[in-house]
Amino acid sequence: MGALGRHRGAGRGSHHAERPLRRLARSPQPDRPCPACLDRPRQRHPARRRPRRPAQKRKRSSVTATEPPQKPRRKRPTIGVTVSRHSGWRIFPLIWLNLALAGARALRWDDAADIDLERVDGIVIGGGDDIAPSLYGTEIVARVTLDPARDRMEQSLLAEALQRNLPILGICRGAQMLNVVLGGTLHQNAFGVYSSRKYSTILPRRTVSVRRDTHLAHIAGTAPMRVNALHSQAVNRLGRDLRIAATDEAGMVQAVERTSEPFAIGVQWHPEHLFYARRQRRLFRALTRAATAHADGRDQRDGVASDMPAHQPVSAAFRDL
């Protein structure tokens, strides 16, 4: 065994010893160009161009495809909004939001010099201070906070807007001003006349009843409505072409509306604070549709009716709002 092992080991050793070593041949280095060749100008071959194919005349089809005419994009109506100089900074953004949700633009007016009825398709008379009793032919008999400059501005604005048949939405003070401009009067201290509970909150605490067969009922339904309250005055004698659209439990007027053109509704509460309630947003939507109809030269009430069918069901979540 030892001899055999030595023989095998010797055989392996002798075999490796006899194997020649392999060396990798180095690849030849490329020849460096001759300096004389570098100075020689390079000859360019003319570019090969493909032969042009003769133009083939296209056969005209006997049937011509006509695209359906596209409807022009409707322009959003612009609404002028009157607000107080000292409180308009917090009231106007809410009205702007409600009008934007309804598809309209809003312009802020707190100075008579800013008013331009040529630029708008409707107006909103916002809330604010009390209306001077001298505007409806009486004297001050209760504690009031007045803004004579705004009284003059909105009095002339409403008179001209009615002549131009511009749709109108009056909010709190705006509803009272609409009534005064049309020849009506106000209760300076409405809670001394009615037994209604006085609230001073933007939360929906007061319940109002909407009368049937009115524009307000067509817009927001006839179910009892929960609204807020921030007022002390209220409508007394109705103005021309106005009717009562809603009252509270004690009979105090909470909404008035015009019976003829133009579309005009005044509410005693502040729907801009109740933008989360669908029935309140419908007031701004109705004004927007009336403004669009006015811009198109159509009947404003028909424009509102086509967008809000009568007896529209109210969601259970907003039944009381």
From TrEMBL:
GO molecular function, one term: hydrolase activity, acting on carbon-nitrogen (but not peptide) bonds, in linear amides
Origin: domain of life: Bacteria
PROSITE patterns, per the entry: GATASE_TYPE_1
Keywords of the record: Hydrolase
GO cellular component, one term: cytosol
Pfam family, one: Peptidase_C26
Cross-referenced InterPro entries: Class_I_gatase-like, Peptidase_C26, PuuD-like
Region (Disordered): 1-80, 292-321
Coiled-coil region list: none
Annotated Basic residues bias: 1-14, 42-61
Biased composition (Basic and acidic residues): 295-304
Name of the protein in its database record: Gamma-glutamyl-gamma-aminobutyrate hydrolase family protein
